[in-house]
Each structure stands twice: as C-alpha cells, then as structure tokens.
Amino acid sequence: MSYPFKEIEEKWQKAWEKQGSFVSLPDPKRKKYYLLEMFPYPSGKIHMGHVRNYTIGDVAARFKSMQGFNVMHPMGFDAFGQPAENAAIKNKTKPDTWTHKCIDWMRVELKKMGFSYDWAREVSTCDSPYYKWNQWIFLKMFERGLAYKKASGVNWCPSCETTLANEEVIDGACWRCHTRVEQKDLEQWYLKITEYRERLLDDLQGLSNWPERVVSMQSNWIGKSSGVQIYFKLKDTGETIPVFTTRPDTIFGATYIVLAPEHPLVKNLIQGNPQEKEAKRFIERVSRESKVVRSSSDVKKEGVFTGSFAINPVNNEEVPVWIADYVLMEYGTGAIMAVPTHDQRDFLFAKEHKLPMRIVIKGPDSLDKMTEAYEGDGIQVNSGKNKNSAVDGRNKNRQDRDSLAFARLAYLPSALLGHAYPHYLLP
Ligand SMILES: [Zn+2]
C-alpha cells in the first residue's frame, strides 16, 4: 500500500492549524493533563534522537486527548549558554542571530513532523519574557545572601577565549581546537547551595521509596566527612603548617607532609634551596592541569621535595615536606599529612618517590606485600608504646576514628590540635 505522505500530512497539518486542534484553553468540564518533554537545544537541525523522543511524547498526548482529557502540550527551546556562544564563534555571527535562526528552522521541522504542540505557548529560554523570571529568582537569592561573587580557578582555552567544562578538557587540551588548556582565576557568581547541604542530607533519610542507588549518589555528591586540623611545625623555622585530615587515627603513620603547589608557604620553603628551580618548573606546570585529573586516585602522582622537614607532633619524628599535584588548595587547609599505608593517593605517591611507609591499622597484608593502601577498619598498631601515647591495640570503628576525641586519644598537645569540622566535597 502506498502512503502519499506529502499530500496527506500537509493536508491534515493545515487543518489542525486552522481548527486550533492543539490549542489548550480552560475547560472546567474536562480533567486537565499537562505533558511536557524536555526542550531541544537549538543546534540548527532536528536529528533522529529528537524524532524518537518527541514521537513518544506526541503519542502520549494524543492518547490522553482521546481519553477526554484537556491536554496542554507545549514546546520550547533550551537556548542559552556556552554552546550557543561557541556555535556563534564558529559561524562568525552573533549568538542572538544564530540562535533565532536555528529556532526558526527547527520549528519548521517540528511542525512538519505533525506533533500536537500548542505553539501559542512556545518559549525560548534566551528571550526576555522567559529569562526575566530567572533574573527575578536570582535577585531574590541575592537579597537573601544566597548569591555571591568570588574568584575561582576555571579551565581556560586561550585560543577560543572561553571557559571549558571539565568534560571538555581532553588530555589537558581543548576539545574543539586542541590548544593546551590553562587554569585561570576568574570572578564568578555562585549560589550558596552549601547552605542547604545538611538539610539535603537529613531529608535523604525520608526518601523511603527511592532507589538506594539514587539516594547514595546524592549523599556521595555532598560528600560529608568529618575531619580535624592538626598543626605540624617546621623543623628549621618553627613555623606552623595546619594540615586537615579525616583520619587523625593514622597520625603515627604520617611519614611525610604534602602542600598544594598553590600553598602560601611554598614560596618561602623552596627559596634558595637546591630544589628551587625544579620546584618552580613543577608549580608552573601543575597550574595548567585540570583539578579533576590532579585529585583522581588512579592517575600517577607527581611532586617535588621542598628541602624542608616538619615535626610529627605525636612522636617528634622528622618528616619531609613535599609539594604534589594531588593536593588541592581548595581541600581543607591545602596541606595534608600523608599516610601512605592507609590512603590510596598517598600510597601511589610514596611508591613513586620511594618514601617511607608504616602500617598503623592492621590489615590483611604485611608492608612488603601491600599493593594498595588499606583504608578499612582494624586494630591500632605501631602507634606509641608509652602511657602518654598509648593507643596501640584499640579496636577502632569508623565513627570513633572520625572524631576529634580520637585525635585527643593520641595525646596531641592541645596547642597542636586545631578545631574539628566537617568537610564537604560539594564546595
Ligand atoms: Zn579551544
């Protein structure tokens, strides 16, 4: 059977338009049904993904209509943001001109598909009747102190002159033009979603009908961990380095200190040392790296020795102070005590640079058999023998060791112990 779609479809599409078949008007006699599909991004052409997606929505809308519902089925365009600016750069035109041209063309194509949209309700997120409401919400947040400005590091492509999302940095280069990506500090607006992180965590408990996977994804995203600041003193100058740790229970296993390359102490530490040149080259190189890559636990960790030593406050051991790419200034205090036996990133780094290791929580392997850090629970060992630091043999559970109380157990002099506070992955 042949189907002369050109004649048939054109005829009925015209008729529907003339009759206003899909225009939704108030009608108290019928039950309302609102059906909304996600708006397409106006890249210029409808593709098969759109056809499939919007056909499913259209079938649902027509079905509900035939069941007697008063269906409202609008359409619009998700038309703001960086992709529009990038497309405009590529096509050598203004984002406004380019975006509206694309919208006009896609509307024609969507209409040819015969979808049952109420086109009188079309919105484009780049038009002021729509985005004035975004601005209104922003102003409300600003008035309540929930919107603020601060400088922060972004991925910057010097050739495209745009910022790039982490996903758009491929092997340290711009996905579009392959130029090496730089880290640049730019003033940006932030919304204080962090004000709500505790509430979010609490309310997750109430989501009893949600899949466990979704709930745990949300809670991992907030990433709350309890930690404590401990002060290490520099051997030569007596200057203090506050380190942040979520595992004060492993302090007897801290065999070196790592500072973020951006740490304010670094400049003085390396000045005049034989390592100064190498360290400066390293800091310069790291400043161009993506922070996501730097802090991931499966990428090779790089660093340089500063030439200085610090004193571990619980056993007075001298530990070397390093600078490494895997410590970020944004995390805690920008300085960590490295416990290679019980932290995977410290483990990788210590192996790479042949730094000493000491087991302080008993795990399945001995030191020479260890192929990765043991981050689990266990009996405390090698953690002091005399009365004043007697924590050996305590069976710690995760709750205990996360607490400030534990740090006190190791008999840290209170002058070397900072305050306890939670740390969140969600910055
Ligand atoms: Zn580029």
Name its key features.
single chain; about 425 residues; alpha+beta; Rossmann fold; 18 strands; binds zinc ion
Mean pLDDT: 85
**CATH H level, superfamily name of the largest domain:** Valyl/Leucyl/Isoleucyl-tRNA synthetase, editing domain
Ligand types:
zinc ion
From the alpha-carbon coordinates, what is the Rg to the nearest angstrom?
30 Å
CATH topology name of the largest domain, in short, is: Isoleucyl-tRNA Synthetase, domain 2
Low-confidence stretches: 386-404
Give an overview of the whole structure.
The protein is α+β, with helices and mostly antiparallel strands. It folds into 4 domains: 5-130, Rossmann fold (3-Layer(aba) Sandwich), CATH 3.40.50; 145-191, no CATH class; 192-222, no CATH class; 225-424, Valyl/Leucyl/Isoleucyl-tRNA synthetase, editing domain (Isoleucyl-tRNA Synthetase, domain 2, Alpha-Beta Complex). Helix content is 32%, strand content 21%. It has 13 helices and 18 strands. The strands form 6 sheets. Strands 10, 11, 12, 13, 14, 15 and 18 form a 7-stranded mixed sheet that branches. Helix 6 runs antiparallel to helix 7 (212-222). The protein starts with a helix and ends with a strand. Mean pLDDT is 85; it is low at 386-404. The structure holds zinc ion (ZN). The site of zinc ion has 7 residues, from loops. Zinc ion (ZN) binds next to loops.
